[in-house]
Amino acid sequence: MEYRGYDSAGIALVKNGDVEIRRSAGKLNRLEQVIATNPIDGEYGVGHTRWATHGRPTEENAHPHRDCTGKIVVVHNGIIENYLELKHELQAAGHTFETETDTEVIAHLVEGEFKDDGLENAVRRSLKQLRGLFGIVLVHADDPGKIVAVRNGPPIVIGLGDDEFFVA
């Protein structure tokens, strides 16, 4: 996991409808120290190492990012070319942003599109608004046991094991 990014890292785990996130600036071993000090437990989740393209390499800008409800979590590699335009529209609609990244826009878009038809359909609707090349992985605490991965451009690799799945 460390090769893809080197200025920050984070992990989010979902358990019983709650999302816990641990993030840190710096290399992956710094995140390991954070987790050793403040353990995290969950049934499924996402992790990410970051090489900053939008926003400074800080703990706040480290992935994963949440929506306003705290239930949707997203990690992303790539660039959302129209993120500033989308961010301004979302802010005008009442969304509050906590980071300088383009990734957080995705969480808020999906939040606005999430209905009773599941995370994957909310993601499908949200993707129509994004411009750029990217790989995205999302989870929603209210749509348990599901991890949604999408791409536009770069490849995504999916690994299957005994009772485990990986997306890179």
TrEMBL record:
This is glutamine--fructose-6-phosphate transaminase (isomerizing). PANTHER family: GLUCOSAMINE--FRUCTOSE-6-PHOSPHATE AMINOTRANSFERASE, ISOMERIZING (PTHR10937), GLUTAMINE--FRUCTOSE-6-PHOSPHATE TRANSAMINASE (ISOMERIZING) (PTHR10937:SF0). The keyword Transferase applies. It catalyses: D-fructose 6-phosphate + L-glutamine = D-glucosamine 6-phosphate + L-glutamate. The keyword Transferase applies. It comes from marine metagenome. It holds the Pfam family GATase_6. Keywords: Aminotransferase, Glutamine amidotransferase, Transferase. One of its GO terms (molecular function) is glutamine-fructose-6-phosphate transaminase (isomerizing) activity. PROSITE patterns: GATASE_TYPE_2. One of its GO terms (cellular component) is cytosol. GO terms for biological process: fructose 6-phosphate metabolic process; protein N-linked glycosylation; UDP-N-acetylglucosamine metabolic process. Residues 1-168 form the Glutamine amidotransferase type-2 domain. Its EC number is 2.6.1.16.
